[in-house]
Amino acid sequence: xxxxxxxxxxxxxxxxxxxxxxxxxxxxxxxxxxxxxxxxxxxxxxxxxxxxxxxxxxxxxxxxxxxxxxxxxxxxxxxxxxxxxxxxxxxxxxxxxxxxxxxxxxxxxxxxxxxxxxxxxxxxxxxxxxxxxxxxxxxxxxxxxxxxxxxxxxxxxxxxxxxxxxxxxxxxxxxxxxxxxxxxxxxxxxxxxxxxxxxxxxxxxxxxxxxxxxxxxxxxxxxxxxxxxxxxxxxxxxxxxxxxxxxxxxxxxxxxxxxxxxxxxxxxxxxxxxxxxxxxxxxxxxxxxxxx
Length: 292
Fold this sequence. Notes:
By secondary structure, the chain is mainly alpha-helical. It has 14 helices and no strands.
């Protein structure tokens, strides 16, 4: 059972919390029906993502066996057979579909978004992950689909600012993750991914700088927009920019100084400073939106 859980990677489900962003920024977080539907979307997206993890491990089984870290994955190590991983992939998709059927609103629009995510990531696993830049853009677009699923499920129209910031944030994190691969290639002389040779430290550092800078500018511009101030009923949203700056600096520190940017999920689950920043950012927003 422990090895099966490693294949479906439930710790990675934290990424799917992005489906709650439309509800959060749309001032509808306290609506019980919409909250319940969004929770179901979270589970449906998580099951769909787990099916992709199973597929990825099956496709990459030989490459993973040659990787210094990934060779310990259950499928690569032989702890879970390829057949069992394929069965788990099918089970996860069935659970995703079954979960969506429980929604109060029509599940079909949301199901279309999740199906699009699944198809996109299937092509990513089979081919597109081998192309530098395209690979990180697909990962970032996957998070845009998460917030789109949350918006479709609740009927909340997404702000173009939210879409851009989501894409830029996850693009920044993806480049930071690729930096870890480049460092491993420099140490071992072997590329951990097929496309790692198309990256180098100079390019990755510049990409991280560009994406983080543009994201920060977008966030600040978002907080001072007249329509945003009118929507939240307060001019003090810009104060949350401080958390965003601290969060970016902390992650760059982890990537450049500590060289621990290989898995953003593990960083979020283990780094106390990052957890404090995210909690404080959420708490401040909740205070501004729902209390003040």
